Amino acid sequence: NCTTAICIEDNIIQVVPIICNPPPKPTCANGLSPVQVIDKDGCCWHWECDCYCTGWGDPHYMTFDGLYYSYQGNCTYVLVKEINETVDNFGVYIDNYHCDTRDVVSCPRTLIVRHETQEVRIATVKPNTLQVEVTVNKQVVALPYKKFGLSIYESGINRVVEIPELQMNVTYNGLSFSIRMPYSKFGNNTRGQCGVCNNNTADDCMLPDGTIAENCETMADHWQVVDPSKPQCSPGLIPTKAPSTTPKEPCKESSICKLLLGSVFEPCHGFVHPQKYYEACVFDSCLLPNLDLECSSLQVYAAICADQGVCIDWRKHTSGVCSYKCPADKEYRACGPIKEITCKSSQQNETSTKQVEGCFCPNGTMLYDTAVDVCVTTCGEFYCFICMRFGERFTIDCQDCICLEGGSGILCQPHECAKQNKTSCDGEGFYEVNEVNSEDSCCPIVTCKCNASLCTTKAPKCRLGFEVYSHIPSGQCCPVYECVPKRVCVHQNAEFLPNSSVFVDKCQDCFCTNEVNVSTQLNIISCEHIPCNTYCEPGYERQPVKGECCGRCVQTKCIVHTGTNSNLILSPGEFKNDPYNNCTIYSCVNVHNQLISSTSEITCPAFNEGSCKPGTITFLPNGCCKTCAPLDSPTPCSVRQRNDFIVYKGCRSSDRIVMTECEGTCGTSSLYSAEANSMEHSCSCCRESKTIEKHVELKCPAGHSISHKYIYVEECSCQVTEC
Fold first, then answer.
1. Which residues are CB-contacts of 339 (< 8 A; sequence separation ≥ 6)?
2. Is 487 left (phi over 0), alpha (psi -120 to 50) or beta?
3. N or C: which end of the chain has fewer CB within 10 A?
4. In a domain, 226, yes or no
């Protein structure tokens, strides 16, 4: 009785009452208020920070110690297990699935609680809704359920699994879950995606082997468990890199998210900080704008506020986006009792002050029983059967019944279902599912569900420069794949981003442009030849050489060094006299791709100038040897002018035109060659050696003019010819 008995002596006993000094109130790492826990002696109490883990949306997690992270895995994972097992077969698990067509983010589908011989599954019936189904050991059960130290009941919008022996409860509503466990029983003895409950976030990202990951996104992937329905998931596999949880483009946040920071939730800000829930809300509204998943962030924050004793009626501020529809005989309340008072429990004292949102009986009525979801005005009306008056018709357990006075009181027959149009699920990936009919729970509706694992079309392997793009056409289940260009350049089995360098060969400087080749759909590679020195010495020409960028100067003509230290450039087959000595002749020949130059000297016959008459000494046509010219020598070869009209095809020049021609005589000789032991003949004729082309306008009889070209001789010379 909170007293201490002290033996003094001689049977003298002093009884001293235990004095309890209120302990200082600690600050919990998860931001929630600490709870009072009675000491083992039953007299005094101390503060403890409950282990509280929650998850919501697609999905976001808050660990036992309040560490926030997002994780998009689509397997089944451990939320919490004991490090040192004290309870048989104990654990809480979450089954996630990809809830968007791009397989980018995931949502919770089933919450699993295992305790000794029982496995409870609370599964979402319809994605992204609050409709759930409860099974125990794979058998559907009605609520409330209580067996083998475990109870399951409805609390507002939530389904609650409670294990009184462990003083813990787990809630789930299809969009979010929460796990509350006492620190006195589970402190420093939890592991999984909810972390270690020890009021310290430093070790919340603990891996199964006890090491700490650098972030909880990495840690979460290591807590996979074997799930036969998901063969692609297996514990121990190398985790794949999680997708970025940051939207690629700036996103305008949903106006609903702003409610978290505004006046609607302001009464709760002093108890629970809203920033992490606001960040999760913005992320959901940006990445999945059409699923209204941002409502889950507000719902979870409101639930935590209610847990801390602050009730927020927030749904009416969302313009109908986050509204919650109740059955016709119920009304929605943001702040209702955790356990609704019923005809059978109205006499019990309900001491809990915590509240939840959900559908409750209207004022003036009362729930008959937790197992009979009917609101009544007077509990005494259930004399006949549950909540029915005599003569009243009702449906129970899919039986159409009438309450009669006398006899057994009840007359029932099987409930008749309205005829339904036959649903055909012929499309690939679709399969038939019986769904609960909201208007008649006894008559399930056959609908078509999509199971992507039934699709046979596989993603194609795209050629280099292309990547797979998938989309699901409206009304279909299976994705359609196509290869789309990645907007890169491709060269020698490698991809190059725009503006990056591309090595084609050592003679070109190339880079990847932003221009697209219409036929190949690949970006165009632009190249420029590296700068080259194009100069070559006289007699050389630059020619391409294999393995070299700028080619090489190759000799194509003979270079002859004359006696006067000058150079002559001769093409193969060309002959040329020395500029200062007509008796020396240079030549160039190509023999087997070798250029060979040669020099020839003209040997003149004996000549006596005295034998010539005065004024008759002249040169032979070779320009080297002298000879005597006859006195009556004709006019030497020269240019002669004449003026005349030019007539062409009937058209004539207006005036006489100066025209030139060659006229005169040239030498011819026959000389004996001692070396050849024969006569050598030399002949030449007077021919043009330099001409130009001139233009003249000719007038035609029809009155028009034409331009005519003619040859104008500028120089004449004696030129060697065959004799």
1. 153, 155, 345, 350, 352
2. left
3. N
4. no
